[in-house]
């Protein structure tokens, strides 16, 4: 069976699930291929760390299970079961059983370059529909990024690849206070919304902004805000994303409205779905010139006074580190999970 996060696994989880090969591992959990002995079907099994680092960590594990269990949408991974096993005394470990999907994540696809506008519009529609469903239930994903988007492949006739959101490890209900030290943030630096980078409370518009960054990256093949955590997060506070002029007018209008700096200026998710559906139906394939979306942090900073830039930097550093006394590691917390 092997070990996960330094713990030995039982032969059968919950008396029915056998573990197979490791699919992926992150800071919070590992995901294995598994088999449901009772229903004789293949599944994916996510095993969290044996012991939570702190209460907030334990709360996140339980929150992911509760959040996912209540959701049912084609653009979201489906939870089938959950349980606890005890590999050692006083170390109860949570596992999550999910549908096993065939396909790579979007991050892997982007290593080969940008996608066609039509393909981006279709996968964007899938994801926007998922965010619309989440918004109706006041759930904010908070970590929209290519690594958390699976392009699921189906063997059934006439069923295309579908984009699915995975990893709800830091999702929360909109309006619910964050279970974090005030002024800290969660997520992945290149895809944070401005309000996330500032350590503020977030709502559904935050996910819309992050999706906008992902779509620009899909169309150009490059991250909008590259670089290390602090400069990347700081860049979006002093400059808006540059939407490539090579894109159609419909694309430019949509992406600009999705990535407005203020949450209240962003387009509503229902309109995002409608516009992406329109683009998918009308967009003709054309060559995308890469590197047009890259933001120069130095150029962005020079457009503002030194005092304003310093203030923004202090805000971002405090948010990313959780302390006004300096940055310990420069990493967003928690680390990206499996």
Radius of gyration: 20 Å
Helix content: 25-40%
CATH topology of the largest domain: Transferase(Phosphotransferase), domain 1
CATH homologous superfamily (4th level) name of the largest domain: Transferase(Phosphotransferase) domain 1
The 3D shape can be described as globular
* Continuous helix count: 10
User: Could you give the order of strands across the largest sheet?
Assistant: 3-4-5-7-6
How many distinct folded domains?
2
- Mean pLDDT, to the nearest integer, reads 77
Taken in chain order, the helices and strands follow as EEEEEHEEHHEEEEHHHHHHH
Ranges with pLDDT <50 over ≥5 residues?
1-7, 177-184, 286-313, 316-338
Number of strand segments: 11
* Structural classification: alpha+beta
Profile the largest sheet: 5 strands, antiparallel
DSSP strand (E) fraction? 15-25%
For the termini, the CA-CA separation is: 19 Å
CATH class designation of the largest domain: Mainly Alpha
Per CATH, which architecture of the largest domain?
A: Orthogonal Bundle
